[in-house]
Design brief:
Distance between the termini: 86 Å
Number of domains: 4
Low-confidence stretches: 321-348
Structural class: alpha/beta
Helix content: 55-70%
Largest sheet: 4 strands, mixed
Number of helices: 27
Strand content: 5-15%
């Protein structure tokens, strides 16, 4: 029961506040409510000074409304008591009234008005304006912040989880400042209501005392002025604290420390300013009539503090950076002896950093995918000047995930002085695997097979597909397209090269961590299958090998459920341990026949290269068993003949949109692929079991067993 009450404490508190507006309270309970109000206001003020960023107290707008409502409820109760009990409304109100009035009603009212107007005009008005500006600027900055997050995500500086957290923070921040813009209006209204309540207490109490009670005017003013001023102060002091808290939280910038820590750190970093302030105060002594005894100790304290801090910073440079990054610019550090030792200090700091062996391990990190580019290519990635590279990479990653079922890791982009100004390089796991060069101010024109007329330009080779091309000026684009050239922009050239390179090496990026992520995602749709299969039957290592082999041959792994089911069934039939992963992969490929057919089929037709029956029999007879399973052991003459024939037959696919396809039996498929992979990595080898029955196969070429190699047979 108690736990349930605590969970609903805020609701109960608001209900109690509403009751304060209706039910009369005795003075003793009003005193309790006043004490609670003061305590809550002080607590809020302390919290706003100790938090590092406003979102740590994101409930502040709602809290502001509740505390204001609480004060209004107390005001109603105190006003009711003042008017019905002859100016009596508890010990706290009387104590405040006597302390401030001190027998002079006019002075007491003036002091009260000064406090109210100070809060209303200075603090509340300023906080309101700051809230309006902050809300507007936070809203205007949202698109830029979102783009910065996408850029950091694409470059690999942050993870997907961190990106989601930062996006959520931006949204929460925008909502917070929007709410604060409205909440400051509550503080403003509270100040106005305080003046109205005070006037009602004084005027209404005077009327009641003179008309109904028949008391003298002096007695009435004395009695009700004490109660009025006391009531106003006990309500206004918490209101003032809340107003200050509001100003604190809307003017608070994000920092690594609290307000107290920031003030201490930043003031101690300015010793010369402190000394100058002390000297300026000493000058005041020269003015006739100035209190020398009061000025000199304060000025001496400032000068001594500044001198001590300057000496401390000279002896210990780290003292200037205590608690965070140093705020001294090189100009500021001139008088502190930092500028001349800046390089030495940096070297020492780096040396000290790597003294910790754990920090050395950070140097061992290898990025999955990197892209370095020269100076002239920086505008392509810089979104502040209209660069679209990051945006296009994000689109590619999303599209590749939809097509292949594999999420490409974040790509780290950075400029490199080791490259030419127009060069770029693509690295996988720290090693360069591709390099290209583009001209930002030109367009790339891909030459057609039958050029009607050539256009002027710089001869080159398209980096992604190796097509002869020319760099042409933008003004000759229409002419080039008229002659049959395909004209593309430099950014598209670089992005195509990057995407094709990633596609060819995606199997190298299939890490154990990524496999675990894919399985965790599969658990959302097929929890029973995952629970039964992992890790008892299918190990993560085995699944990684299967997925790697599929990606290596360009097969989509999006249908992960089918892949896991097939692996599970195959292993259940053959038992553990798994001795032949190739067999499992072939079973999986057969289960994915619709996916494979869709990838290589066009208008219901699949153009392929077939293998002659005699050649296939020869290859079957050449199968040998090794430590890692079966492999083809062909004699050099037959191998050379096959390589030559594959090259000749693959030329027939030059005018086709898809890659060269070789169709063979299920027994030979994997072995033949391993044979020609090293020579023609882009050639795809399919088995008859991997082609859907509703597809028409059209053989446009055939591999034959030549006579001179037939006699020699297998090695």
């Amino acid at each position: 029961m108690l736990r349930r009450l605590l969970q609903n404490s805020v609701v109960l508190f608001v209900l109690v506040i509403i009751l304060l507006l209706i039910i009369p309270l005795p003075p003793a309970l009003v005193d309790v409510a006043i004490v609670i109000n003061m305590a809550i206001s002080m607590m809020i003020l302390v919290i706003t000074m100790t938090i590092r960023e406003p979102l740590e107290l994101s409930i502040f707008p709602s809290l502001l409304l509740i505390t204001t409502l609480f004060r209004l409820g107390i005001n109603v109760s105190t006003t009711r008591n003042i008017l019905t009990r002859g100016g009596e409304s508890g010990a706290i109100i009387k104590a405040f009234g006597d302390f401030v009035v001190r027998g002079n009603v006019v002075v007491g009212l003036i002091i009260y008005l000064i406090i109210v107007l100070m809060q209303f005009i200075v603090i509340t008005k300023g906080a309101e304006r700051v809230s309006e500006v902050a809300a507007r600027f936070k809203l205007d900055a949202m698109p830029g912040k979102q783009m910065a997050i996408d850029a950091d995500l694409s470059s690999g500086m942050i993870t997907e989880k961190q990106a989601r957290e930062r996006r959520q923070k931006i949204q929460t921040e925008s909502d917070f400042y929007g709410s604060m813009d409205g909440a400051t209006k509550i503080v403003k209204g509270d100040g106005i209501m305080s003046l109205v309540t005070t006037a009602i207490n004084l005027i209404g109490g005077s009327i009641i005392g003179i008309v109904q009670s028949g008391q003298p005017l002096a007695t009435v003013l004395s009695t009700y002025s004490i109660a009025t001023v006391g009531d106003g102060l006990v309500a206004q002091i918490p209101s003032l604290l809340i107003s200050v808290s509001t100003g604190m939280i809307v003017t608070r910038a994000v920092s690594e420390g609290s307000l107290n820590e920031d003030v201490s750190r930043q003031f101690t970093q300015q010793p010369r300013s402190i000394m100058i302030t002390g000297l300026a105060m000493l000058v005041l002594v020269l003015i006739p009539g100035m209190p020398i005894l009061q000025i000199i100790p304060v000025a001496a304290s400032f000068i001594a503090a500044g001198f001590y801090l300057e000496k401390k910073i000279k002896e210990e440079p780290e003292f200037a950076r205590a608690g965070g990054e140093g705020l001294l610019s090189p100009m500021d550090g001139d008088g502190l002896g930092l500028e001349e030792n800046q390089a030495e200090t940096a070297a020492q700091s780096e040396e000290d950093y790597y003294k910790d062996v754990n920090n050395v391990y950070n140097l061992l990190q290898v990025e999955p995918v990197e892209m370095d580019f020269g100076y002239s290519l920086i505008p392509l990635a810089d979104e502040s000047v209209g660069g679209r590279l990051i945006q296009r990479i994000v689109i590619f990653r999303r599209q590749y995930a939809q097509d292949m079922g594999f999420v490409v890791p974040s790509i780290r982009l950075r400029d490199s002085s080791s490259l030419g100004t127009n060069e770029y390089s693509i690295k996988v796991k720290g090693e360069e695997i591709a390099r290209g060069e583009i001209l930002v101010d030109y367009l790339l024109a891909l030459e057609p097979d039958d050029v009607e007329e050539s256009v002027d330009g710089i001869e080159t080779i398209e980096p992604a597909y190796g097509i002869p091309s020319k760099w042409i000026r933008p003004e000759t684009r229409d002419k080039a397209e008229m002659y049959g050239y395909t004209v593309i922009e430099p950014l598209a050239v670089m992005l195509s090269h990057l995407s094709e390179t990633i596609k060819r090496h995606s199997h190298e990026l299939m890490s154990r961590q990524e496999v675990v992520r894919l399985v965790e995602n599969l658990k959302k749709t097929a929890p029973e299958l995952c629970e039964e299969a992992f890790p008892g039957v299918i190990s993560y290592n085995l699944l990684q090998r299967v997925l790697t082999m599929l990606l290596r041959e360009g097969i989509s792994i999006k249908d992960l459920e089918t892949i896991v089911e097939t692996c599970f069934e195959t292993i259940s039939e053959n038992g553990l341990p798994v001795k032949d992963v190739d067999q499992i992969v072939e079973k999986v490929r057969a289960a994915l026949k619709r996916t494979i057919t869709r990838m290589y089929c066009e208008d219901g037709n699949m153009k392929v290269i077939t293998i002659d029956a005699a050649l296939e029999r020869t290859m079957v007879n050449s199968l040998s068993r090794g430590e890692n399973g079966m492999y083809l052991a062909l004699n050099p003459e037959l191998l050379q003949s096959l390589v030559r024939q594959v090259a000749e037959e693959c030329r027939k696919f030059n005018n086709l949109s898809g890659p060269p396809l070789i169709l063979t039996s299920q027994v030979m498929r994997i072995h033949f692929y391993h044979l020609i992979e090293q020579f023609y990595p882009n050639v795809r080898v399919l088995s008859f079991n991997e082609v859907a029955s509703n597809v028409q196969i059209q053989a446009i070429g055939s591999l034959q067993l030549e006579e001179d190699t037939e006699e020699k047979g297998s090695a």
